[in-house]
Amino acid sequence: MTDDAHPWLVVGLGNPGREYAANRHNVGFMVADLLAGRIGARSGRHRRAVADVAEGRLGFGGPKVILAKPLTYMNLSGGPVAALAQFYKVPVGQVVAVHDELDIPYGQVRVKCGGGEGGHNGLRSMSKSLGGKDYVRVRFGIGRPPGRQDPADYVLSDFSAVERKELEFLVDRTADVVEAVITRGVEWAQNTYHGG
């Protein structure tokens, strides 16, 4: 059950720097930026955490949301996330990680609460720093690399021209899923968005 007295912390996972901006691994940043635009919030460097943060509400009088993009590299994301959760007094169950997922076909979005990290270094760092795994994950499918390409190289490469044709729509849909998790709950979001 969520606690209306505390805000939600939505963490877009990615790597800082222009050279990574269009990478598959940075889809979490893309979703966080879109959500900040939706709630009319400007992001800026947080004084207590190595992260860009935007604060606002979902809808008129809706839940308070903290949108964060850790500015450490992906495998060190946990430190800033834990610092923000502590600063804003966000329970672990109201932390939402938005990230790329190799084991889901491109463009599909899946929601889950808790569970393993599936080799995702950003999630591994978050679990360690938060002292638990019971946060929500909004997983953006990027599919498996073609041929024998190393998954590490694949996630750090840009979306293909074909993928980019749909990317804006898919990022928008993923932002819808994040909003649904916060306003309607994980189960509702799963039932509504796991069909496609």
Largest sheet: 7 strands, mixed
From the helix content, strand content and strand pairing, which structural class follows? alpha/beta
Task: Indicate the CATH topology.
Answer: Rossmann fold
Q: What is the count of β-strands? A: 7
Helix and strand pattern: EHEEEHEEHEHHH
Molecular shape: globular
User: What gap, in angstroms, lies between the N and C termini?
Assistant: 26 Å
The overall pLDDT average reads 94
Radius of gyration: 15 Å
> What is the percentage of strand-forming residues?
15-25%
State the domain count.
1
CATH level 4 superfamily: Peptidyl-tRNA hydrolase
Q: Helical content, roughly?
A: 25-40%
Look at the structure and give the CATH class. Answer: Alpha Beta
Helical segment count: 6
- The appropriate CATH architecture is 3-Layer(aba) Sandwich
Your description of this structure?
The protein is α/β, with parallel strands linked by helices. The protein has a single domain, classed as Peptidyl-tRNA hydrolase (Rossmann fold). Helix content is 35%, strand content 20%. The protein is built from 6 helices and 7 strands, in the order βαβββαββαβααα. A 7-stranded mixed β-sheet has the order 2-3-4-1-5-7-6, with helices on both faces. A hairpin with a 6-residue loop joins β3 and β4. α2 packs across α3 and α5 packs antiparallel against α6. The longest helix is centred in the last third of the chain and has 24 residues.
